[in-house]
Structures are given as structure tokens and as C-alpha cells.
Amino acid sequence: MTKTRLLASAAVLALTAGTAKADSVLHILHTNDFHSRVESINKYDSTCDAETEEAGECFGGTARLATKIAELRAEFEAAGEPVILLDGGDQFQGSLFYTTYKGEDTAEFMNKLGYDAMAVGNHEFDDGPETLAALIERAEFPIISANIDASQSNVLKDKLLRSTTVEVGGETIGLVGGTTMDTPEISSPGDALIFQDDIEGITADVEKLTEEGVTKIIAVTHIGYGHEQEIAAAVPGLDALVGGHSHTYLSSTDDSAEGPYPTMVAGADGTQVPVVQAASYGKYLGHLKLTFDDEGKVIAAEGEPILIDNSVEPDAEILARIKELGAPIEELKNKLVAETATPIGADRADCRARECVMGSLVADAMLDRVKDQGIQIAIQNGGGLRASIDAGPISMGEVISVLPFQNTLSTFVLKGSDVVAALENGASQIEEEAGRFSQVAGLKYTVDPAAEPGSRISDVQVMADGEWAPIDEGADYGIVSNNYMRSGGDGYEVFATNGMKAYDFGPDLADVLAEYIAKQGPDFAPETDGRITVADATDAESTAEEAPAAQ
After folding, report:
1. Residue 1 pLDDT
2. Rounded CA separation 92/123 (Å)
């Protein structure tokens, strides 16, 4: 053992003063919210084209991640320091690879990269529990969630684990999973799975592992940065938490980050617990280094996310396999369907809190498709918009990257009071950047994020005969949304329970968007128009939302 001076700096966060005897070191490499970005991405988080790749402006991709992971593994193992690779969930959904292979490619590539464990994300249920079960069967590593009771599920019983252990460097490391509790609202896990309180579930498995003699325990969760800090504070015995779900970029050297890496939280038993995420889409590889004392207590935590940019050479073997798997979908992906004169922004922070360019555009396209059926209002969830589009020719692959869920248009009739209730639901979790935020067309409203949930919406107006008029809460309005929201997804139960004359109109939302943009011509320059007003927003914020930003 060596004497280690614990440095108080942005990059090295000491948990005890002075010096301490370092019993062992553990390196944790981690990803989260990969969303099927098997191929490299551009600055808009959609698939990189050959020209952008040639210019050296692409990020991520499985082949680059493979190279960096192998390089770091070799470095740490040569130094006699063990390393594990974890994923914070949401590997599924977001590109044509998932649309085509439904997770078969996910298992293959995660096995090749050598993951040690993965948390269950909400998007792992988008095609029902059967698709997750197939991933578990193919995966050579455990997939875990301590707050999902699968005992009543014919599909996942005895397959989905709550927690696990891995042996590295002669040490046993406990890993406890966790999944966001609102998964039944935002995905399709089915009725047989029971989503329990996350703090209670994680606490129970930490206690179980501790009773079994495991002294080093890491939570691997898909719950969101804010609540993950609450979990770290509430669960005794946790040594670190590797998270996901909120796509949070953390850094101790970049002022644009949402918090420090690692974020230190005062734990329930008086310790300091590091909490980390690594943004999303494979653009970064998280690297957390933990130093434990002889009793398995963390005495130092340090690290920083690693940007996976053009300086990382893609692994040749994996790149060849990606091209092989991509061949059947290349023709569809490369088909040019439209053109735009300006970028179309779908920044996550914008589309889940205020009017965004992509949100208005998609809602406009939905309404345009069914306006001759007496439909007056379109409502699209901001979380359904998964990528921006750059200026110039638009491929179908880019459009599908924006709208990858294969949702279809649904129309129905709703009372004005229920329209307002739907908008309140959309704004109910705005502080958490929840995906339920309402992007609209044929409608204007004001949202006050500082107000209590349920009273955040005001000044709702509907376009009628070319004029804006206050919504009549007793009147009937024709609504178009997507089939996911229509069935109550993202908390829109009011659509499922109170919607009248419901009709699943049918066209895929991606096709609707592509056809709408094509109809506008090559000089089309979409922008926001003030249909959503954020109360007390500054002029600077209003200006920022008009200019599409890269995610």
C-alpha cells in the first residue's frame, strides 16, 4: 500500500483530510442514454454523414467507444488497478439500428465491449417486456433493477435481477440497479411488472449485499440526476451512484456542465457519495476513479467524462460489423426526402420546457395532415423529439432519428377543460425536464414554471377562423396527437379517459414530418413564433429559443 495525498481540486475530490492508506483502487467506465447511436453522431446528435466524418466533426459511435474502452482497460490493468464497465440504461430506441434489429445489435455490441452490468431504462420497455427479455437472454452481463418486481411476469420472472456482484482485482463489487418509477406512464412495461419505490428497493438490496459481506457497493440507476442525488443521500452503505435518464453532462472543468463530476452528496451514514452521469448518445465515456481504505470505505473520488471525438480511431473490426448490419437500411436512411434552409433545433432542454423549433414544426405537420377532418389542435410531447436536423438536404434517416418511436397519428375530440388539463400535465414536471411537455399547433398558452403543478397554465387560446380566441372550457375541440399519448402515455390519461370519437388515423409520424417539410420547398426556414410563452422569461431566453442549438 502507498501513501496518497488527497488533493482538493476540481478534478480530485478528497473525502477525508490529509493522507490515508489506499487499500484499493477501482476504475468505473460508464455510459448512459446511448439510444441506439451505434454509428457516430454529428453535433445535432443524429447520424453523421460521410462528409462530416471526413471533416473530423463526428462524435461517439460504438467503434470509437470500443477503442477508448480497450485503451483505458489496458492502461489501468497494467497499473494493477481493476476496472468495470457499466451502463445507466436506455440503450434502446433512437436510430434505424433499433428500428431494424430491436436490440439484437445492442446485445452483440455490448458483449463485445465487455460491459459488466446495465440498469434497466424506461426505453427498454418501448416494445414491451418481451424485447427486454430477449436482450437479457443474449447479454453476457446482468441487467438489473432493484425496484421492479418481476415475480408476476411470465416474460421477465427469473430473468430480471435486482442486484448482482462482480469479481475484479480480487475484490467483490456489489451492483444495485434502479429504474425511474414513472416508466409505466412513459413506456410500455405491461401490467405484470410492479414498479416499487426506488429508494426502498435500492436500500433493501444494499442491506442484503452488506449482510452477505460485500463492502463495496455501487448503484447503477436510470432515474435522473436530481433524484439520483436524493437516493445517494438516503441509502446507507452506497459507495457511488452511476446514473442516467436525464442525459446530464457533468464536469469539473467545463463551466457549461450541469454540475461537477463527480457530484458529491452527503450520505445517510455520514460518508460522501459520488454521483455521476456521462451525458448521452455515446458522445462521452464517463471515468470515475474510486480509492477505498482497508474497510471498503471510499476515501477519494476523482474523474472526468472523456469526449469521444475524431481523435479516437474507430475499432476496425466493429466498424466493419456496423457497416454490415447497416447495409440493409442504408437505402432508406440515405433517401433524400426534403430540404431546409436553416437548422431545425430539438435541444432537449428547450423542447421539454418551452417552445422549440422542432416541436412547433412537428405539431404543424401533424395538424396540417388532418386539418380537413375538423381537427383544430395538435399536441406532441417534447420528449418524443430525439434529434435536431442541420441545414441542407434532409435524409429519411435524419427524420427517423428525430421521431424514432414509430408512433402514428391519432385523432379525437376533447372538451376545452380537458385540453387545459392536458397542458397542465405537460408542464407538471418541467423542473425535471420530463418529456411530457406539450409542443403545440393551433394553440397558444402561457406556462409559469415557478407556479405549483396543476396551476402553471394560463391564457390558453385556440385559432378559429384565422383569429386567436380564448379556449372555451365547455366546448368540444378536435385534437391530433400520437398514438402513444392518445393511450395515456407521458401522463396524458385525460386523452385515454375523456377523448371522444377516437380514431387511429395511421400514418407514421416520421412520414408525416418528411412529407410536410418537402411540401414547403428548399427555402423552408422553420422558426418559433411565440405560441408558448414562458412567464417571466428574459429577453435573452426568448432570443435563445429562436436559434436552434446543437444538443
Report:
1. 31
2. 6
Positions of the chain with pLDDT lower than 50, given as ranges: 1-21, 538-551
- For residue 128, what are the contacts with CB-CB under 8 A and spacing of at least 6? 188, 189, 190
CA 494/CA 390 separation, integer angstroms = 35
Q: 477 with 461: CB under 8 angstroms?
A: no
Q: How distant is the alpha carbon of residue 116 from its chain centre?
A: 21
Query: Mapping DSSP to helix (H, G, I), strand (E, B) and coil, where does residue 363 land?
Result: helix
Structural domains of the chain, count: 2
Whether the upstream peptide bond of residue 262 has omega within 30° of 0, thus cis, is: yes
Is the Cβ–Cβ distance between 28 and 288 less than 8 Å? Answer: yes
Can you tell me the distance from the alpha carbon of 255 to that of 472, in angstroms, rounded to the nearest whole number?
46
Long-range contacts of 70-77 (CB under 8 A, 24+ apart): 70/315, 72/27, 72/29, 72/287, 73/29, 73/114, 76/27
C-alpha span between 132 and 125 (Å, rounded): 6
Q: Name which of 382, 344, 347, 345 is nearest 363 in CA terms.
A: 382
pTM for the predicted model, two decimal places: 0.77
- List the CATH number of the domain containing 246: 3.60.21.10
Average pLDDT across the chain, whole number: 91
Please tell me the distance from the alpha carbon of residue 420 to that of residue 473, in angstroms, as a whole number: 8
pLDDT in tens, 362-375: 999 999 999 888 89
Boundary (domain end) residue, out of 276, 291, 320 = 320
Alpha helices per DSSP H over 275-340:
316-334
Asked if residue 331 belongs to a domain, the reply is no
- Per the structure, the complete domain to which residue 27 belongs is given by 13-320
* 176 grid coordinates: 444495485
